[in-house]
Amino acid sequence: MSTASTRLPEGRYGRSSDERADRTLKVVGIALGALLIAVIGYFAYHYIAANKISAEVISFDPSDEAVKVTLAVEKEAGASGYCTVRSQAADGAEVGRADFRFDGDAGRITEVVTLRTTAPGTTAELLGCHAD
């Protein structure tokens, strides 16, 4: 006694529904992956291109109630924006934070700003600069 085969003859009825579903999933996955890469590229470009102001802390002079910070700011001529500076105490607690605005036509500005603190600060840290 022989048993009947349950497989369909190869090539006779076209592709199976599993093969069609696999192909559809691959196409959808590639499309979504390309879209994700495009969105990440868009935001990365605008993050880098929009930041027209950069700065660095040249020096700082701490006291009991304030920290005097010398900032060197580079920006496009005529651009305006602000930089955020913070100070921490010896134990790491934040004792002061402020935004300082920079306007004007100069491309490079060196300015001394005073950051008021709630306790003696031991550091001056530039957190970032943003253009308006």
Automatic annotation (TrEMBL):
The chain crosses the membrane at residues 25-45. Pfam families: DUF4307. It comes from the Bacteria. Keywords: Membrane, Transmembrane, Transmembrane helix. InterPro entries: DUF4307 (IPR025443). This is DUF4307 domain-containing protein. It comes from Streptomyces chromofuscus.
